[in-house]
Every structure is written in structure tokens, then in C-alpha cells.
Recover the amino acids of this structure.
């Protein structure tokens, strides 16, 4: 399903008023506008929930860089959403070291208990999107799971219902 905003629809810019002030404060901390791309995208995602093509175009315009460059960065990092996601964005490491310790079972438990059913899909209530990711840098604490900005360690399938209840 594509969620791109068509040309006929009205686009509400992100960087106006208080949000533009916030960006200006961020820009003061960076040597160039281009260097502030990651925090600018972060602000945009916080405001809109995801980064559409139109948002990328706005960020490019505000920072004076090309939309292609912005898109390259957005597609490189899994922390930027290119589609609308659920209220809770869950990233389960399923790379080999974690997989050996049961990461697939953890992923399956999240898909079942949230009703999302498929990795990358959003649950019908709009609350959950679960994805598989590469190494989260916490291999000694299998299985590590990122729920939004919280890194949870040593997650097992048995712990998943409690986690889902907490964030629901
Ligand atoms: S392999 Fe899973 S955190 Fe490193």
C-alpha cells in the first residue's frame, strides 16, 4: 500500500512556527545544514509519525540539499519509517547469535500477542508494528528488543505478554 501524498492534496509543512524554531536551535549546533539532516528527520518523524516523500522533499528544501540525498539517508537507517507505523514500533534482533538463543520465538510471540501477525505489518488496532532487524549491539543479552526508544534485554517468548500489556 502506498501512502504518498498526491499533488492535489494539501500538505501541511512540518517546519513552521515552534518546530522551525526547534530546528534553528539544532542547526546552531552543527557546522553545516547538511550535517543536521539526521536530527531534522528525527523531528519530522516525531511530528508526522513517518517520513513520506513529501516530508523528504521539505527537509531537503529546508536544508538546501537534494531530495535524493535525503532519501538515501532515510532508506539507510531502519529508525526512519517510510510507511505509517503503529503507536509502538518493535524491533527484534534476529541475526544469527540471537537466533541461536531463540529470537525467532520472541518475534513470533510479539506477532501473536499484538495481533500484527506479519513482520512489517501493523496490527488492526494501529498500536503495533513489529520488524526484524540486524544486530542491535546487545548480543550478550539475547534476545534484545527495541520498543520505541527502550532497549529491552533477555526477552523470551514468556516475557512478551507482559511487555505487550505494559506498552499497549
Ligand atoms: S546479534 Fe542480536 S544483538 Fe547482536
Amino acid at each position: 500500500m502506498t501512502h504518498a501524498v498526491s499533488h492535489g492534496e494539501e500538505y501541511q509543512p512540518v517546519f513552521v512556527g515552534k518546530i522551525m524554531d526547534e530546528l534553528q536551535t539544532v542547526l546552531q549546533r552543527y557546522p553545516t545544514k547538511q550535517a543536521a539532516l539526521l536530527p531534522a528527520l528525527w523531528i519530522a518523524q516525531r511530528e508526522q509519525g513517518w517520513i513520506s516523500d513529501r516530508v523528504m522533499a521539505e527537509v531537503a528544501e529546508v536544508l538546501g540539499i537534494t531530495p535524493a540525498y535525503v532519501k538515501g539517508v532515510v532508506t539507510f537507517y531502519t529508525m526512519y519509517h517510510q510507511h505509517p507505523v503503529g503507536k509502538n514500533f518493535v524491533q527484534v534482533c534476529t541475526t544469527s547469535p540471537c537466533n541461536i538463543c531463540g529470537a525467532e520465538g520472541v518475534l513470533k510471540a510479539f506477532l501473536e500477542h499484538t495481533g500484527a501477525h506479519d513482520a512489517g505489518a501493523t496490527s488492526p488496532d494501529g498500536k503495533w508494528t513489529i520488524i526484524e532487524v540486524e544486530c542491535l549491539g546487545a548480543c550478550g543479552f539475547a534476545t534484545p528488543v527495541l520498543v520505541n526508544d527502550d532497549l529491552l534485554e533477555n526477552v523470551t517468548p514468556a516475557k512478551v505478554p507482559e511487555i505487550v500489556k505494559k506498552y499497549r
